[in-house]
Write a structure and sequence with these properties.
Helix content is 79%, strand content 0%. The protein is mainly α. The chain crosses the membrane at residues 12-33.
């Protein structure tokens, strides 16, 4: 895993301990942002 992703994993791990629902929402947003076809 790259060092750049290290802070992301750390942040997500903190979110999963504090706000699991927010973590799921964040993943959903990132998934939609990556999955939506650009016009």
């Amino acid at each position: 895993m790259t060092q750049r992703h290290g802070w992301l994993v750390s942040c997500l791990s903190r979110l999963v301990l504090t706000h699991q629902s927010f973590l799921l929402l964040a993943f959903l947003i990132m998934y939609l942002a990556d999955g939506t076809p650009s016009p």
